[in-house]
Amino acid sequence: MPRPLRVAAAQSGPIQRAESRQAVVKRLTDLLDQAHAAKVDFVVFTELALTTFFPRWYMTDQAEVDSWFEREMPNAATRPLFEKAAAYKIGFYLGYAELTPDGHHYNTAILVDRDGRIVGKYRKVHLPGHSEFDNERAFQHLEKRYFEPGNLGFPVWRTMGGIFGMCVCNDRRWPETYRVMGLQGVELVALGYNTPSTNSQKADEGVEKRLFHHRLSVQAGAYQNATFVVATAKCGVEDGHPLFGGSLIANPDGEIIAEARTEDDELIVAAIDLDDTRFNKETIFDFKRHRRTEHYGRITSQVGVELPK
Ligand code: ING
Predict the structure, then answer these.
(1) Span 44-65, mean pLDDT?
(2) Rg, C-alpha atoms of the chain
(3) Which of 216, 197, 217 is nearest to 207 (CA)?
(4) Cα of 129 to ligand 1 centre, how many Å?
(5) Contact 94, 112 (CB under 8 A)
(6) What whole-number distance in Å separates Cα of residue 48 and Cα of residue 193?
(7) What's the Cα-to-Cα distance from 286 to each of 157, 166, 175, 292, rounded to whole Å?
(8) Which mutation among 167, 195, 210 tests ligand 1's pocket best, with the greatest number of atoms within 8 A of CB?
(9) Which of 1, 281, 283, 288 is most deeply buried (CB count within 10 A of its CB)?
C-alpha cells in the first residue's frame, strides 16, 4: 500500500570559522520553519552541520580541536532545533562532530524521529584526506587527523514508516556503503556532505567534474540498492575555501527528483512514496535471487588491490 512521505534536503550555505553554534542553529531552525510550511515530514541537514568544515585547518592544540566537537546531543545550543522539530512533528538527520565521554572523536550523524527522540546514530566509516600537514596540497583535508573511523557499521532503523539508513560525505563514494544497507532492506539513505569545489591535489579538476562524481555516486547507490537517497551539502565559501552545492534527492531508479540551485541555505522538497522501492527490490535487484556471493570474496578479504602476476 502507498507510504507517502514529504522529504527535504536542508542545504546549509557557508559557516564561517567565527560563527557561533547559536547563530548556526538559528539558520537551521529557519530551514525547519520552511519545511513545516511545506508540510515536510523528514529533513536531512548536512555533515558537520553546526560548525565550519574545521578539518581544513591544521591544529596541534587538542583543546582547540575539541572545541569543534559536541560532548552531548542534544545540548544547550542544539535543543532549540530538537524542540522545534518535535513541535512540528518533523524527523531529521543531523551531522556533527562527536566527542564521546571516553574520549573518542567521530564524524557523526543522528536520526531523530517526529517526537524528537534520537532513534539512530552513525559514525563516518570512510575518512578521506590525511593526518599530517601536507605541503603538496593546495589546502588541507585533515579528517584522518581529527576523527577515528566509525565503529557502528552501516545500520538501518525502522522509523518514519520505513527503513532508514545514514552515511556521511565520503561514504557516498563507496558502493559498499549502500550495499550493506541495501542488504538490510533500506528504503531511504540520508547523508550530508562538505565537499571542496576544487581538488587539493589536481588543480585542473573543475567543480563540474566534481559535481558529476557526486551525482554519479549518489544516483548509482540509489539505483543499485533500490532506495531513495537524500544528499545535503554544506556549501559556499567558508573563510575563502569554496564547497560545492548540488544537494539532491534521488529515487530508486537513480533519477534526481529534486536538486538545489544555490550555494546558500536552501530547502529542496520531494513528495515520495516509500513503496516505490518495492518493484526494483522484487525484480532486478532481488538480491536473494540474483547475487552470487561465492564470487565476491575479495570484497571483504582484501583491503587494497592485489595485482595479477
Ligand atoms: N569531503 C569530500 C568528499 O568525499 C573528497 C572529500 C572530495 C574526497 C573529492 C575525494 C574527492 O566528498 C568529505 N568531507 O568527505
Answers:
(1) 98
(2) 19
(3) 197
(4) 8
(5) yes
(6) 8
(7) 20, 22, 17, 12
(8) 195
(9) 281
Residue 70: beta bridge partners? 98
Angle at 34 between CA 33 and CA 39, to 5 degrees: 95
Q: How far is CA 295 from CA 166, 177, 290, in A?
A: 28, 19, 12
Q: Is the CB of 193 under 6 A from ligand 1?
A: yes
Cβ partners under 8 Å of residue 61, min gap 6: none
The CATH label, of 3.55.30.10, 1.20.1250.20, 3.60.110.10, 3.40.920.10, for the domain at 4-301 is: 3.60.110.10
For the CA of 124, the closest atom of ligand 1 is: 15
CA torsion sign for 166, 169, 171, 175 is: positive
pLDDT value, residue 105:
98
The pTM for the full model equals 0.98
Enumerate the active-site residues: 47, 124, 169
CB atoms closer than 10 angstroms to residue 249: 26
Domain ranges (residues) in the chain: 4-301
Which of 173, 200, 209 is the best mutation target for the ligand 1 pocket, counting ligand atoms within 8 Å of the beta carbon and taking the most? 173
Confidence class for position 301, pLDDT limits 50, 70, 90: very high
User: Three-state DSSP class for 33?
Assistant: helix
Q: Is the C-beta atom of 217 inside 6 A of ligand 1?
A: no
Q: Whose CA is nearest to atom 1 of ligand 1?
A: 195
Taking each continuous run of H as one helix and of E as one strand, the counts in the chain are 9, 14
